[in-house]
């Protein structure tokens, strides 16, 4: 599928935008039935798609992004989402709930060897600054870039 394709996942009310292959690059966005109602424009989705591809290709890790409402507790919810990613040990999930003003970065066991908690916190601070300025897509792209830079090449 491409960045503009939406598919219902398991009957849940969350459309899943998969970028190229299931379990790999993905952006999950919680929004209405139409992509036009989502948090990103087509241009922003393409920009996110490109950032995910670069991060995955350069690091050999699997990066995914979730945008939507978190169940509580937020960290446990993000960890549960992370476990659903194929190859979760080598995966990094950026989960953002703009309405709840929450951000979680979850790294798998293998990914954590290359991206420290400190690195994730620095990326989180950078994203939060962009989010505060109203740039959700730009913040996620900046976070992907920083996390991939810290992870290094595969």
Principal-axis shape: globular
What order do the helices and strands follow? Answer: EEEHEHEEHHH
- What structural category do the secondary elements indicate? alpha/beta
- Number of DSSP strand runs: 6
> In this structure, how is the largest beta sheet organized?
6 strands, mixed
The total count of helices amounts to 5
As for the number of domains, it is: 1
Please give the order of strands in the largest beta sheet: 1-2-3-4-5-6
CATH topology: Diaminopimelate Epimerase, Chain A, domain 1
Strand content: 15-25%
Low-pLDDT segments, ≥5 res: 1-24, 30-36
- CATH arch. level architecture: Roll
> What is the alpha-carbon Rg in Å?
14 Å
Main traits of this protein?
alpha/beta; 6 strands; globular; Diaminopimelate Epimerase, Chain A, domain 1; 154 residues
Provide structural commentary.
The chain is of the alpha/beta class and 154 residues long. It is 42% helix and 19% strand. The radius of gyration is 14 Å and the shape is globular. The chain contains five helices and six strands. The protein has a single domain (7-151), classed as Diaminopimelate Epimerase, Chain A, domain 1, CATH 3.10.310. A six-stranded mixed beta sheet has the order 1-2-3-4-5-6, sandwiched between helices. The model is unreliable at 1-24 and 30-36 (pLDDT under 50).
């Amino acid at each position: 599928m491409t960045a503009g394709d939406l598919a219902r996942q398991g009957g849940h009310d969350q459309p899943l935008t998969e970028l190229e292959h299931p379990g790999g690059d993905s952006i999950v966005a919680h929004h209405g039935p139409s992509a036009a109602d989502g948090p990103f424009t087509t241009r922003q989705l393409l920009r996110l798609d490109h950032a995910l591809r670069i991060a995955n290709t350069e690091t050999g890790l699997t990066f995914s992004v979730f945008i939507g409402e978190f169940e509580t507790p937020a960290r446990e919810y993000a960890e549960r989402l992370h476990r659903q990613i194929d190859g979760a040990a080598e995966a990094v999930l950026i989960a953002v709930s703009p309405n709840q003003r929450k951000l979680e970065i979850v790294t798998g066991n293998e990914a954590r060897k290359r991206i420290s908690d400190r690195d994730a916190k620095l990326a989180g601070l950078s994203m939060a600054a962009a989010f505060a300025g109203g740039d959700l897509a730009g913040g996620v792209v900046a976070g992907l870039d920083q996390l991939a830079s810290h992870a290094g090449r595969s």
